[in-house]
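Annex B. Sample input.
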Amino acid sequence: MSATRRQLLSRTGASVAGIAFTGALSELFAGSAGAASGARPGRPGSPAGYGPLLPDPDGLLDLPAGFRYRVLSRQGDPLRSGEGLVPSNPDGMAAFAGRRGRTHLVRNHENKVTSKIGVPTVPGLTYDPAAKGGCTALELDGRNNVLGERVAIAGTAVNCAGGPTPWGTWLTCEETEDKAGTKGYTKDHGFIFEVDGADPHRTGAVPLTAMGRFQHEAVAIDPASGVVYETEDAFDHPFGLFYRFLPHEPLGGRGSLRAGGALEAMRVPGVPDLSVVQEPGTRFDKIEWVPVPDPGAAGTPIRHQDFGPRGITHAQKLEGCYWGGRAVYFVSSFARVKDGSGAGHFGQVWKYEPHRRRLTLVVVFGPSTDVRLPGESPDNICLTPTGGLMVCEDGDGAQHVFGVSERGEVYAVARNAKDIGGPGAPEWGEFAGVAFSPDRSTMYVNCYTPGTTFAVTGPWC
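Annex B, continued. Sample output.
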């Protein structure tokens, strides 16, 4: 069933922030600390989060009253390690607890060969010297003072998102299928790499080839079984797949994923395209997992491969992915009929329960029209410490980080000020990589253009 914008907004009470959605929002917060305690984001009694955003006199980041930010890093500044300059295009990110109250912040750089500032090549940490992507790692003290900033992996390409492991490392994902000999690359790309933010040389620059070569976006690991779930962000038809990787050494710790495993793709019987499912709450039992014929995509991209007469299930723009409770959640950022999707939407969130082999459409963002609303096309998503959700907006015009409570309240948490890039720069850049510190006191987030990493503190609880 489709619904009008007015109907969607009236159902959710979300008109203040402009996000329209239908579905059971409480489903998205399973397993978070706040959800378990019954806590809610925002001040007690507040119906809309933390209050209105206040203009930043410095023209960088607008926040509610009581919140403040610190710029941790900006592209073009010298890396504190002396290895070169802070690279462009910071994207996916995660925060890990270190010793003596310190935090290790691992940050992707979604650089193509044409990007302005590449990740500096470092001996022992470089996969392909011709590629400009990779990760940098910041070490912070308990007050978010930057103690160190260095290259964590280099020579990778278009590092978009990824996901943390249960043993405290970061899986960085290449969102590309380019092979050696194209664009000047000396090696094939489209892999996942493990990164140790505390000591990058312990993980090096080793592609986890058994996990597939495709346009990776994000990953999430089942903490009980060690199964790794992976999304494929394919814009063009045929669209991407949702995968699971069965490691030979599940939950084996740092480096264990190098031992290989089996890669499979999800098949929803009778549903070749997830976009055609429009009603939240729709569920499918007895989900099937089909072995990928050629995980390395030596001749044919995986989504083009032959999965047999029953086919496989595709979806446009599969992006965010995280584990909550006993399920994995993944996001289709949007679908457009004009691109080849079976139906249109401005964002879906799906839930897969492995123990039940059940897939459920939890939330649908936006109306089924070609008119975009503020806050549509959700991209990076993270659970908050207080039982909510933070959503990075990836659209046109002013860009926000939105909070969503379990009650369905939508509120703006941050907005890029128009002057962030300075004279002659784009007015706004999208947000990415939202993450919280291990002690829950700080929200870290990147502005993609110009590349800036912020630490935001305030009354989160």
